[in-house]
């Protein structure tokens, strides 16, 4: 695991975007795993700038980490909406190459299997970008007594619901369930890039980087990944 400590959010975002751009430069048809949340917004802005300077996404295939269960793609709180607003509408990823779990699927088990299969059919993820929850989650793999391998429906932690309530009109409106890639789905990515900023993430980062590998801190499993890079700002590195 490589850990780069940078001064601030802007440096984190620029460095992350350059790594993603490097991946696309090396392999135009890269399979990218993408994340949502406050953390990657700056990286997406930088990638849009790089696209305006010629970075071509026309052969890139994307798979998002997760989606709230019960939200339609046009719901402004959905991760479909987030991705389109913050990234896809500004770059040239082909719509048919964009994959995000369907939060309104008729049968959730079938949807999880379909999503996992689609990633396998694409030959797996070349680069997965991750944020981290204050509770150490990656995707929506919440702290638990076991690592869950494949894409699945998850009951969100009270901590996660509290943290994400800032994006919703009220806490009551935050969905309590989500579809998320599993730990194996994520760990099978050839490269992983985890971003974190702010002191609120400092404890989770310490546990993920220096703690025991255990499902109580899902991100701790990244210590076993052969090509994982953390880019964190000074505040998130406070306890390292
Ligand atoms: P955030 O979420 O970027 O909004 O802090 C990260 C996460 O929960 O993975």
Throw out a few tags for this protein.
3-stranded antiparallel sheet; 7 helices; Rossmann fold; alpha/beta; 240 residues; globular; 7-stranded parallel sheet; 30% helix; binds 2-phosphoglycolic acid
SSE blueprint and pairings:
Layout: E1 2-6, H1 9-26, E2 31-34, H2 41-52, E3 61-64, E4 66-68, H3 79-86, E5 98-99, H4 108-121, E6 127-130, E7 152-155, H5 158-164, E8 177-180, H6 183-187, E9 191-196, H7 202-210, E10 228-233
Parallel strand pairs: 1-10, 2-3, 2-6, 3-5, 6-9, 9-10
Antiparallel strand pairs: 4-8, 7-8
Helix pairs in contact: 1-2
- CATH architecture classification name: 3-Layer(aba) Sandwich
Tell me the strand percentage band.
15-25%
The geometry reads as globular
Q: How much is the average pLDDT?
A: 97
How do you describe this structure in short?
With about 240 residues, the chain is an alpha/beta fold. The chain has seven helices and ten strands.
Notes on the structure:
The structure is a single chain. Strand 9, helix 7 (202-210) and strand 10 form a beta-alpha-beta unit. The chain has one domain (2-181, 189-228): Rossmann fold. The protein contains 7 helices and 10 strands. It has a 7-stranded parallel β-sheet with strand order 1-10-9-6-2-3-5, with helices on one face. A 3-stranded antiparallel β-sheet has the order 4-8-7, with helices on one face. The model has no long low-confidence stretch (mean pLDDT 97). 30% of the residues lie in helices and 18% in strands. The protein is α/β, with parallel strands linked by helices. The structure holds 2-phosphoglycolic acid. Residues 37-39, 131-133 line the site of 2-phosphoglycolic acid.
